[in-house]
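Exercise 3.2. Students should predict the tertiary structure of the chain below and write it as structure tokens, then compare their answer with the key that follows.

Predict this chain's 3D structure.
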Amino acid sequence: MEFVTLSEVLDVLTSIIFAICLCLLTTLTIFWWILPNQKFQNLRRCGFDGPTPSFPLGNIKEMKRNKSLKSSFSSSCESMALDITHDIHSTISPYYSSWQKSYGKVFIYWLGTEPFLYITDPEFLKKMSTKVLAKTWGKPSVFRKDRDPMFGNGLVMAEGNKWVHHRHIIAPAFSPLNLKRMAIMMVDSTKKMIESWISQINSGHFEIDVEREIVTTAGEIIARASFGMGDENGKKVFDQLKTLQMTLFKTNRYVGVPFEKIFNIKKTLETRKLGEEINKLMFSIIEARMNSNDKIQHQQDLLGHLLKENNGTYGQLNKALTKKELVDECKTFFFGGYETTSLSITWTLLLLALHEDWQNQLRDEIKEVVGKEELDINFLADLKKMKWVRSEALRLYPPSPNVQRQAKEDIRVDNIKVPKGTNIWIDVVAMHHDMTLWGNDANKFKPERFMNDANGECHHTMGYLPFGFGGRACIGRNLIFMEYNIVLTLLLTKFKFKLSPSYHHSPTIMLSLRPTYGIPLIVQPL
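Answer key:
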């Protein structure tokens, strides 16, 4: 009988460890250097220029280094809070601004080993988009994985026929009749906020962080009007989504680097845990609604319509949404419902605080169109100047500062080929502040530019994209418009707004375009 010696065991273990290390090294070499370099050379042959990547980080290191420009800008703004500029692109995205000067309005940059086609040329975007149907646009797979805890496979991330099917089920919830039913809850929640403000003012506290207040109220509105949630459940979902957003977008990120989640395991586990908690809560709300006896009343909100439309697909093979898909849609619209609306209103209040003449013009219009009686939402569409102000606020400070797509097939634009699988990054902020599109006053607040033109007299129809473009444009924009008009009308009939000396102008991108330090305003009753 032969015995295996310790040295022989160690030799075997050493060989196994060596083989594993060699396999790992080979895998990393392939995914971190060989494949991305092949992509890089292919894109150069297709006619694209751009900053030279250093794999496996791509251009991330340069992007992080350039962010120091933003920090110095923020510091200077803190020392001169009232000297505010709307020329924000070079401060929120200093790397894009710098690369534009070197490579123009269309170029390739790299997030890790993922190439992104950067576009701020509306003509190029128009030519490219005319060749692609809405359902054949993809979403960058790197973002689908990164943002899965927040959106899952909801409409924002869905692709192909799945996107078509989800949109078909969701669209009826945003009909004019259904939006009017939600209006009552919007009015109630806004009046509740107004009462809170009056109480603070009567206590001698005139400075109010309108961003925090508006975001909270918008969260309450979307919870009640869209999902029938009580205050407790609505606040839970709202708080968890905000925490998830901060966890995802406020930490050091290496999106696009292969195996990034493994190397950043703490953040990965934290976001997964938060996502599972939100899923569990949303699932319990859906289950309770499905088992509720009060079907007719519940059908009036977004969740009710989702379930009603979904039930209508039973019996059709693979047509009904799964409970996981329902949860994903609810998360997507809960986040989108309060984030986009609240930021649109928040940035508008800042602009009105800086331009009191426009505050007065809007009040005069409200008195003329709506009157002093109880708010009648049927008159809100006649507030033309409010529409101009809203459009200009969305131009200067678009809550969705960029649009992402992925080419699911080769796309040819003139003599350039966009290869299948290329990620696309459309810089909305850059286009909205481009003087070649808007004139020398591109960075000035001028709502009258929208007086006779829904595109604000932009020199190109694709130069104004506050809600995306084409068939994949934001499905809930009419809900946003209605809530915007209701909240702003009620606020302007009760208060006047001035900029607080403590305000620091430092817009930042954290998925959405938001103020870093909130928006404290001096709020005075009329």
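Discussion points: Residues 227 and 303 are 5 Å apart (CA to CA). Residues 1-39 form one domain.
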